[in-house]
Queue: 4 jobs
Job 1
Amino acid sequence: MRGGGTDNLVSDERKPIVLVVDDHRFSRTVLSRILDAADYRVEVAKSAQEALERVRHYEPDAFILDTEMPGMDGIELCWRLREQARFRITPILVCTANEDRNLLRSAFTAGCDDFLVKPLEPLLVVARLGGLIKKSDYYKQLERIRADLARYVSPRIRNVIESRSKGQSASSPPQQREVCVLFSDIRGFTALTQCIEPTELFRAVSQHLGAQVECVYAHHGYVDKFGGDGVMAIFDGAEMACDACRCALDIMDRVSALPPLIDGVPVPIGVGIHAGPVVIGNIGSGDHLDYTAIGETVNVAARLCGHAHPMDVIVSHAVHETVGSAAELAFGKGETAAIRGLITPVTLYHLRRRGAVREECTAE
């Protein structure tokens, strides 16, 4: 929101700041009076070099530049300003004493948004400047909204959506792909909710999920969704199984290092990992879509997670075979287990770091 009457540069209610750059005192005075009457805060610079020095210390909301100044003219100054990321969308108007087409073409090529012809018409100055500032404000507001929304969508999914919005329909058909799916879950979460204040529980769970998300991205995966007290993450590519296993072990390390929730007891995390085909695409209606992966592979990974003991990582036979003899990964002896929801028993393996397994064997 703009307008108001305070000079506080960080206030949302401050006057918009316009930097007028013109070597003629009369032109600076005329523009200052026009803009001041329209409730703008006016700053002036007598040269392009002075303007560049001044913007090192603050960011005007708009510029009005004279095209003809000794040394660096307004068009070159426009180039210099547009080279700075912070002035990429800041409104820039140029003032000219004539409407020479080549001059105007050069000004627009440099990045100016509009032009004013001297002698200046106050109504035209205020209308053109106000329209450009309003457009700039709308764009900044959209950028803030986009940044906030990005925190609720994984970078991978956001890139897919953005690429499709440029040339493809958001309702493009789903794709079948080979991926590795990781599920994490807090064991005994329902019991914890009865022992901890809701606000404290929410804070602690958020902290734990944040640590898991960092591990997922560090190992080239992406978070498909949160499941209340756990995450569903997807890994793809040639190293997807190894990436998922390393991620799971790092999650265990990170979670173990976090403060306990109650009575010195760490949060008991269980993790399940399975690899196989999934179908990835949009699910839902036109009003609400979820870009996600579904299929038996997802279901099996979720069931393995539910079968894991506290601080335990269980992987399927498919993951075990794919990982092979990765140097830092080791597995317990394969065991056959009946998993809820699956018709036939499956072979599963408990994942550990190789050094940790040797220590366990020595202790025994």
Job 2
Amino acid sequence: MSTPAKESTGLRMGRPFGIPVYVSPTWLIVAAFITVSFQPRFADMLPGYGESATYLVALAFAVLLYVSVLLHELAHCVVAKHYGLPVRRITLYMLGGVSEIEREPETAGREFNVAFAGPLLSLGLAGIGALVEAFVVPPGGLAQVLMWQLWLSNLIVGVFNLLPGLPLDGGRMLRAAVWKVKRDSGTGTMAAAWVGRGVAVAVVVVPLLMNLMAGQEPAIGSMLWTVVLASFIWLGASQSLRVARVRARLPQLRARVLARRAIPVTAEVPLSEGLRRARESGAGAMVVVDHDGHPVGIVNEAAVNATPEQRRPWVNVGALSRTLEPALVLGADLEGESLLDAMRGSPAPEYLLVERGGEIYGVLATADVNRMFSGV
């Protein structure tokens, strides 16, 4: 699965295929849980081994499971790189792995291929491992148990990720299918996200009903684990819904429409005088210019609001302005994703909008852009 880029908080393990791989400290939590949960099973399978040895075998299973997750995520990343998509890193954490692919595929077909690559590799490794266990490894003993671990871990990773709901790979495949049919990626995201919420509920309800129908008490540990997994799926699906709603509003995001009219003022003008001029002109922003009329700064709205009214005649607008760096100057024609990308590149409360010839058009306030997406 992929997520927006974020800072790593784990131990860097290497760079396979040029992709940095990190392991989060939260992995230790689930490794301990898997080790304790599976040790009794391995003790039954290896009666000739002592308790310490079967704990080591259970720990090996936990490690192999995460090696399987790593190979799964690498498959996504290799296909993504094949399509020219930038891959920032892979992070292994408590609930699995995250491939940070920084841009979405441009077509439904590529989206499907990137998503399917992970489960395909996992299920392929599971099949190979099962054949090796059945026909190559001698029955009984540690070798057979280790091979069983190998193919079972890949089977778990492959099947779980094929569940048809975001944020799982099966959800991305469903998204791609709906995208292909409806010719709209947003519709695909909405459909796969709602199915993801249904999958989250089923992950808890189905095992509970099966236990009740069999007349068995649900195991507390297993129920806790299913609730954690269901919460992960529900939160991921909900985040996908929010992203889809944001993207649905992107066509309305135009710098020209959201721009505030701005008046030019020199740095030594008192704030009270600058505000008076802005009110008279019906402007919502002030741009600091030098004596040749070239813009050199933008007066910060938050700083203006924080200045008490009685002090405004004694504070110059230059003291409340931010120096106009090149990244804070945006084209007035920017809109949609391009506008958001430009703002993400240099986060700031205000930006100067200019025409193609360099003439000042107005000021774009980040607060105005955020209001467009409030309630999403």
Job 3
Amino acid sequence: MDDLADLTAFLTVAREGGFRSAARIAGSSASCMGDAVRRLEARLGVRLLHRTTRSVTPTDAGARLLERISPALGEVRAALDVVNDFRDRPAGRLKLNVPTAVARLILPQIVPPFLAKYPDILLEVIADERRIDVVADGFDAGIRYGEWLEKDMVAVPIGPRVQRYAAVASPAYLERRGRPTHPRDLLEHDCLAWRFGSGPLHVWEFERGGETIHVEPRGPLVAGFGGATDFAVEAAVAGCGIVYLFEDWLRPWIDRGALVPVLQPWWLSVTGPFLYYPGRRYLPAPLRAFVDFVQSTRPQRPRGRPRVDPRRTGA
């Protein structure tokens, strides 16, 4: 059990990138976490972590160890969590990795009633646009769109089953530059583009009556999707150009008239996201409770078949 505790401490420190942040997660102290890692290194006879005043990163040996023990410790945790079945209420930590759009548009309707129903569960949500291995990175589950799902994962629909993009601009911009009537007209307009991380620009896609139009946005601003998205929206409000994002994201500005819809018949609909997790015989009780809650509150399946392409909606 001492080995297991030290391995868990090493895993937490490596994932958090530091002893203090790992100690906060573990409910311990930085010195205790450091002692655990030193004991493990002494027993193994190899250095597992590079330590500097600014960062803590795994050595090659540490990275190999992480790769092997992460799934194993996850299984141990799940096995020990079986005792949760004997509690009146499930307890423990549930860690989710989700796209920014999900954290903003979908989870606010789900999380508060879930936490009210299960007050002994600690929910940790990390918003991240990267495509990651949720198990190797220490998450219980993730939320992603269609093709971003790993084939060996269990997937459960979460949130609305249809999400729609909306193209909008400020009244001042449209008065100055005119209103586009076809997606190709955007080539003559200022478009406020965005990208995921360091990837290519997000190509705007429109669809009407079976016809699909792709437009590579060109304009005075490119924003990183996530933290800078609202900055791009505010730039549109200020009259800098046209922006194309989830309708639900833009709805507050549309409702108060700060942004005006354009090209509405061409707005693209896509299938909503999925909660996904490893197919295990014994799910951790917090995850099992969340899956059951999501399934019990899932909206009715809409009519029609919206087009599915997760690359348009985030990792």
Job 4
Amino acid sequence: METLGYIAGILTTLAFVPQVLQIYKTKSAKDVSLAMFLIFTTGVIMWLVYGIKAQAFPVIAANAITLILSLVILFFKFKYRKTSV
């Protein structure tokens, strides 16, 4: 059963890598919803806390890495935003 948790964690975490690479490559995050990523990141933090309290390593590992990727996307969202002149 733990193997299933690892596979699910790997797949859902890897799903964010293409988005991070696309934003980095194009230097644009205009199509990324800020509200969605703020809500998502809050949820990931909560899953991480849950995993720590439950001592569920697959949950901890997947959500720790996903949190990093989500924070990178949020960082890019602010870094590459267009400022009005």
